[in-house]
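Hi C.,

You asked whether I'd gotten around to modeling the 90-residue construct. I have! Everything is below, sequence then structure, no commentary in between.
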Amino acid sequence: MTDKELEGLRNKLLETTSFPTVYMFKFIVQADNRNIALVESLFSEEAEILTKQSDKGKYISITSKQVVMNVDEIIQVYKKAADIKGILFL
């Protein structure tokens, strides 16, 4: 995500979300253990993490529900995720 996209997300969340809240993150990465581990490491131990492999097994979607205290916690996860090669944000 670009800085402009993150700022847009920040503004939208501030307008529509009361904090603290349970926020759902969703990412898609190539199905290899390293990528999966990198994405899962973005979340707290208390987060509920679900994974689903694509039909051909090449990709995996990772959905996490996590309690966040403010919008900055959400933005930080997306900034860290942007460093993961080939990640898609949903």
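If it helps when you're writing up: The longest strand covers residues 21-30.

Thanks,
B.
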